[in-house]
Write the structure tokens for this entry.
Amino acid sequence: MLDQAELIRRYLVTDRTVPRVRVNFITSLDGAATIDGRSGGLGNEDDQLVFDTLRMLADVIVVGAGTVRAEGYGGIRLSREDAAWRLGNRLPAQVPVAVVSSRLELDPRHPFFGDAVVRPIVITHAGSPPERRAELAEVADVLVCGERAVDPAVMVRDLADRGLGQILCEGGPQLFGDLIAADCVDELCLSISPMLEGGGAGRIARGHSDAVREMSLLHVLTAGDMLFLRYARRTPPPS
Ligand SMILES: NC(=O)c1ccc[n+]([C@@H]2O[C@H](COP(=O)([O-])OP(=O)(O)OC[C@H]3O[C@@H](n4cnc5c(N)ncnc54)[C@H](OP(=O)(O)O)[C@@H]3O)[C@@H](O)[C@H]2O)c1
């Protein structure tokens, strides 16, 4: 079993003034991002501890609308202990969650909004349906980051301008593909689950870009047969 104090030491970023996009995913040994359409079947309690610790260390959690729909995101609340750690480190007790969407087919009564413990954020672009933007503005802060799609670089800048520079992206594959294409991935935390999934599940990134980004290994943690890899970008971010 992993120890949270050790995880904090391994994943803590000391300079929070520099915006940082950290992406967290889990995959099977043969590259599947899901089992039966969700990531939960790949994890275990050690992965949950890493997942929760990364949330605790973030300023904001960002997730694509497909993942909100598939995984039923809603009511994200850090444990009392994790909230106390944040308060002790001069951070707000809870972490806001932002959803990235183009179509904005998100019900304002969805638990993502209704059960949020901090006012959620909707990240969209100028071409999304204005009436849906207005409807969602009743239950969330709406950020317009780009003209015809969410531009990841604008998203990072706008979140950082709101004091939310330590960004934890929890997927999914389309959003990750867009972040890779825009060269906005500073870090990938990847859990490798000791399973083979011989079906048709997709991989953790999907997109149309032919971008190739080299990453450097920062650490490998093991717990039982599960691996926890931490990689950081090798080349400096575009200015
Ligand atoms: N293994 C893991 O760790 C992990 C993690 C997360 C998710 N998943 C799995 O991934 C699957 C979902 O995949 P997905 O690719 O559909 O997820 P996704 O990336 O979360 O969602 C895709 C949706 O996000 C919005 N979006 C993404 N990038 C955008 C951009 N640049 N501009 C505007 N909107 C953008 C669009 O929403 P609209 O359609 O609303 O316009 C798009 O349809 C689920 O099965 C989930 O369980 C696995």
In short: The chain has a mean pLDDT of 96. The first strand starts at residue 20 and ends at 28. Residues 25-27, 33-34, 37-39, 63-67, 70-71, 100-103, 105, 149-150, 170-175, 178, 204, 206 surround NAP (CB under 6 Å).
